[in-house]
Write a structure and sequence with these properties.
Layout (H helix, E strand, L loop, with lengths): L4 H4 L8 H15 L8 H17 L2 H17 L11 H9 L20 E7 L1 H6 L1 E12 L13 E3 L8 E6 L2 E6 L8 E3 L11 E12 L8 E4 L14 E7 L5 E4 L2 E9 H6 L2 E5 L4 E5 L9 E4 L15 E8 L6 H13 L9 H15 L1
Parallel strand pairs: 1-9, 11-15
Antiparallel strand pairs: 2-7, 3-6, 4-5, 8-9, 10-11, 12-13, 14-15
The structure holds zinc ion (ZN) (2 copies).
Length: 369
């Protein structure tokens, strides 16, 4: 099944970021599981809308998608993070948490997750060849003074907005929706007096840095897991740090999975002669035998000159796309040489070769008919 993200979000292919975001918000609200409880179709659509938004709101992913479609993103690991994809999280970042979760949270639950995700931006070369990187990040640690409750002495009082129910009704036109209480976030209880240590947040933000070894061949959207460096929960346990990789585009090479593409200029005489030419590769250079009759845009495959696969350790291919260049100006000597070449290929005084003469002969019949 081929999914068109633009059709899905009901936008044009040249839509700007603002329109993409607007379209996403509208549809995400419409198909959000909280509003379509038990409707599997709506849930599937909601997931697809999120997938489309994740891709189209990211310039690099959008460029890959426009060029190679959804498959291109799979190859390049663009969907690496989708298993960890949390519907509540992305939604609350847009809507301030109002529709976040339909399940009632108990007051003993942690208000954040143990695992923590951070971004790491790499250059193209760093990703291709691997590197060592220091990642600076801040994590949450449950406040010891209030045991993570955010309340001084742990005292709580019934939420005045929902009267302890954790949910409130909101009307839009003639419809009434039940949603999580924005005041107590569904807990039904609120803090009586804020903890002075954490100012009522229930946790502290702490800074830390960790050195990571980025393996050769890592790609956009993949994550590196650093165990035990995530958030600290109320029970003192600590989650993992997930370092999500972003890779910048390169000036010369374009990546597609383990394959790498380069466009290389070839002078027309080199093609005419079917020369063996030197072309740049990721690691150095290689030689390419041009066949007679090669055209601009033709692609040639160099095996094992691509990017190393993280799992199999095997290298992909390098694909050289040739761009045939013609001279913009020629001198007298070159003009003379080319005219002699013309003659040797049988181009007559009318400026026609055999193939072109054949055309005119056939067209004589055509004009008559
Ligand atoms: Zn506290
Ligand atoms: Zn409430």
């Amino acid at each position: 099944m081929d999914i068109d993200y633009y059709e899905l979000l009901e936008i044009s292919r040249d839509a700007d970021k603002q329109s993409i975001k607007k379209a996403y918000r509208k549809l995400a609200l419409e198909f959000h599981p909280d509003r379509n409880q038990g409707d599997a179709n709506a849930e599937a659509k909601f997931k697809l809308i999120n997938e489309a938004y994740e891709v189209l709101s990211d310039d690099e992913k959008r460029a890959i998608y426009d060029r190679y479609g959804r498959d291109g993103l799979k190859n390049s690991g663009g969907f690496g993070g989708f298993e960890d994809f949390d519907l509540g999280d992305i939604f609350s970042s847009f809507f301030g948490g109002g529709f976040g979760s339909s399940s009632k949270k108990s007051s003993t639950q942690d208000s954040y997750k143990a695992n923590l995700a951070v971004m790491l931006n790499l250059s193209f070369k760093e990703a291709i060849f691997g590197c060592k990187k220091t990642v600076d990040f801040s994590y949450k640690s449950s406040c010891k003074a209030c045991k993570g409750s955010g309340s001084k002495d742990g005292a709580l009082t019934t939420c005045h907005q929902c009267k302890g129910k954790g949910q409130v009704g909101v009307s839009r036109g003639f419809m009434t929706f039940v949603q999580t209480c924005p005041e107590c976030l569904g807990k039904g209880q609120i803090i009586k007096e804020k903890c002075t240590q954490c100012k009522g947040k229930g946790h502290e933000e702490l800074k830390e840095s960790v050195e990571v070894q980025v393996p050769e061949g890592i790609d956009e959207g993949m994550s590196l897991r650093v165990s035990g460096r995530g958030n600290v929960l109320k029970d003192g346990s600590r989650g993992d740090l997930l370092v999500r990789i972003e890779v910048a585009n390169d000036e010369f090479f374009v990546r597609d999975g383990q394959d790498v593409y380069i466009e290389f200029p070839i002078f027309f005489t080199q093609v005419a002669l079917g020369e063996k030419i030197k072309v740049p590769t990721l690691r150095s250079h290689a030689f390419l035998q041009l066949p007679l009759g090669a055209k601009s845009g033709d692609r040639f495959v160099l095996e094992n000159e691509g990017i190393k696969d993280l799992h199999s350790q095997r290298r992909g291919r390098q694909i050289v796309q040739i761009d045939i260049k013609f001279p913009q100006r020629i001198n007298e000597e070159q003009k003379d040489l080319l005219q002699r070449l013309n003659k040797s290929f049988g181009i007559n005084e009318e400026g026609l070769n055999e193939e072109q003469k054949g055309f005119f002969d056939k067209l004589t019949e055509w004009f008559k008919g």
